[in-house]
Amino acid sequence: MQTRVFSCLEPLALAAAVEVACEILHQGEVVALPAETVYGLAGDALNPAAAARIFEAKERPFFDPLICHLPDSGWLEEFTDVPRALRPQVDRLVAAFWPGPLTLVLPKRSCVPDLVSSGLSTVAVRWSAHPLFQAVLDRFGRPLAAPSANRFGRISPTTAAHVFSELNQRIPLVLDGGPTSHGVESTIVAPGVDGLRILRSGPVTREQLASFGEVVEGVGNEAAPEAPGQLKSHYAPRTPLELLEAGASLAPGSGAILKAGLLAWRAARPGFGATEVLSTRGDLVEAASALFAALRRLDESGLERIYAERVPQEGLGAAINDRLQRAAASG
After folding, report:
1. Which of 1, 80, 269, 275 has its CA 20 to 30 A from that of 29?
2. What is the value of pTM for the model shown?
């Protein structure tokens, strides 16, 4: 299968690309396209065969559930069975953060295939704010399951070129909508009568969620994750990665450092073979949007090791540190 890449940066090209994408989706195939977070690999969320194609193309284990993207908030009632006690809380979250990078884990309705939810009684849903993703959803007319468009466990893609390097000859089409804005995957929350459990940190921060109830960190289960991104090792480069606390010195000698790369928070350090700086201004939003692309460039630089500095554990920094921690777990 030869993968085609369609540019969607011009209005006429966008309309044509959306038509082609929907034709492919109606055939039960998959299409890569940008969300505001990262690029996703989309397939018909109501078609088990399409879900199987997503798992196959990504080499994703079937126990790791998929996020479903809804055409609009009205689909929430069709797709999920929100308990009466949770309805006010869910409605407030939807009003505040949709469309946007917040995923809710809720009891599912029978129309959701078991393969999509990995056999769980819940399903992860969100409504993307990206205009290209929304155009495809509007034309397709039903929800799309869409995890990140990369091979399982690897660095998430934030450009069409990243997707092509990961999935060329595995999928039929990539829609190029330019770089994504947030650069990290959506925040995943499980609403409950006792508050909100954060199952994955993301652009919607703990601080932003605090006014919607008590916020606690969810406990991941490696054998049966409740949501994507809960496995210990994830988002990983092929090059071994080691985490550094901010300002920490390095033990290896200069020769070893010359063969290593540094993913720096605010400033480069001398002696490394390659360096990427996330934000010289100390801007966590800028750092998040740069994270995966910078990590990918270091991974492609022929290094023996990558050192990555933690960022401040506040706001969006929690999501960045989460991705770095999981990327380091495989090293």
Report:
1. 80
2. 0.92
